[in-house]
Design a protein that fits this description.
alpha+beta, Arc Repressor Mutant, subunit A, three-stranded antiparallel sheet, two-stranded antiparallel sheet, 5 helices, 30% helix, 9% strand
Length: 163
């Protein structure tokens, strides 16, 4: 398409701007995922002691990465309490009894002694207990028959013995 240099806008009488030639810049490829400016890969991710999710390395933790144990302030406050240990024990018992898999919601109901209201409050702690078991290598989380990442799982899932 050629631009007529002498054409003017009939209303304002102004010429249109001419295209500007820009020097060629070579395309730069984006840096590899997780790579810092120094070219050094960050340390391996850790697992939160409370919720069992993966903790990714952050620049602000550079000096004290070895002491990082929790993914958030909420997890640090929550910690692992007696009911969490009990949920883990019941989950382990159910998956080692020969059943193929255990639902964390059923485990919460069993620990709550059949009280549905109390089981509702134990639903998320049961999911955290399942993720901690996966982090220790004692179990795996399955969704629709496939093993899934415990840090990324959403919705209903089952816990089974590691194969």
């Amino acid at each position: 398409m050629q631009i007529d240099r002498h054409a003017r806008d009939p209303i304002s009488g102004v010429s249109p701007p001419l295209p500007v030639a820009r020097p060629h810049q070579p395309e730069r490829s984006p840096p590899a995922w997780g790579r810092r400016d120094t070219g050094v890969m960050p340390p391996e991710p850790k697992t939160c002691r409370s919720c069992g999710r993966r903790i990714e390395w952050r620049k602000k933790w550079e000096r004290d990465w070895e002491q990082v144990q929790y993914c958030s302030t909420a997890c640090r406050r929550r910690g692992v309490v007696e009911v969490d240990v009990r949920l883990e024990a019941v989950l382990l018992e159910r998956i080692s009894r020969g059943r193929t898999a255990a639902d964390p919601a059923d485990v919460a109901l069993a620990v709550a002694d059949g009280d549905a209201a109390a089981a509702g409050k134990l639903a998320e702690p049961a999911r955290r207990a399942a993720r901690r078991l996966v982090a220790r290598g004692e179990a795996e989380i399955v969704q629709r028959g496939k093993v899934v990442d415990p840090s990324m799982v959403k919705g209903a899932f089952e816990v089974r013995r590691r194969r």
